[in-house]
Amino acid sequence: MHKLRIVGISGNVKAPSRTSALVASVLRRIESELGLPGRHIDLAVSAPALFRALRADQLDEEGAEIVRTVESADVLIVGSPVYRASYSGAFKHLFDLVHYEALIGKPVILAATGGTPLHGLMIDHQLRPLFSFFKALPLPTSVYALESEFDSYAVASSDIQKRIRAAVRELELILPHAKTLALSRAEEQSRLTA
């Protein structure tokens, strides 16, 4: 069986970014607790390659590789700053390019950053419906962090660290399911190429 592919996506469009730091913190926790390293796609860096195309069939190789990485992930950690009551346009554009069947059954940890506690509603009103459309499995515990919970773009709040640990524990519980899906996909792929 292949090693599970963990992919973090930061929907920020500037660097440094609290959102990027939050997604990186979740990835580090998954690696330290579950022994699963991940790849971090930071849209502050990657978005220009995606914006060169309006549709998936227009992507150049750099943009197509980003989309393939997302589509082939076994687990996603997705985060966006709250921007105008939703996720960023760069985040939306990335998922407009992802095939609508590519994320079926994949666990997703949802995260966001914002300026007030009320902005945290974006996770349940925007992110959860997006990943429900994809038939992914958003985990029950999401991670929302205020600007005041960071120190020099590093998570400084023990409450946020507790939420990250809770989300990673939920991921650990669902991973046997994810491993089964990954094995099924690998077997199907080898049958197709045989």
Outline the structure in words.
The protein is an alpha/beta fold and 194 residues long. The protein has one domain (6-193): Flavodoxin domain (Rossmann fold, 3-Layer(aba) Sandwich), CATH 3.40.50. 49% of the residues lie in helices and 18% in strands. It contains 6 helices and 8 strands; from the N terminus they run βαβααβαβαββββα. It has helices at residues 18-34, 43-51, 61-72, 89-97, 121-133, 158-193, and strands spanning 6-10, 38-42, 75-81, 107-114, 137-138, 143-146, 150-151, 154-155. Strands 1, 2, 3, 4, 5 and 6 form a 6-stranded parallel β-sheet that branches. Strands 7-8 form a two-stranded antiparallel sheet. A hairpin with a 2-residue loop joins strand 7 and strand 8.
- The total of helices stands at 6
What's the pLDDT, averaged over the residues? 91
Globular, elongated, flat, extended or rod-shaped: what is the shape?
A: globular
What is the CA–CA distance across the termini? 17 Å
Radius of gyration: 16 Å
Quaternary form: single chain
**Share of helix, binned:** 40-55%
Instruction: Report on the biggest sheet.
Output: 6 strands, parallel
Q: Beta-strand percentage?
A: 15-25%
Following the backbone from N to C, one meets helices and strands in this order, namely: EHEHHEHEHEEEEH
Low-confidence segments, ≥5 residues, pLDDT <50? Answer: none
Number of strands: 8
Q: CATH first level: which class?
A: Alpha Beta
Indicate the CATH topology. Rossmann fold
> Which CATH architecture?
3-Layer(aba) Sandwich
> Could you name the CATH homologous superfamily?
Flavodoxin domain
InterPro entries: Flavoprotein-like_sf, FMN_Rdtase-like_dom, FMN_Rdtase_MsuE-like, NAD(P)H-dep_FMN_reductase
Organism: Rhizobium leguminosarum
GO molecular function: FMN reductase (NADPH) activity
Enzyme class: oxidoreductase
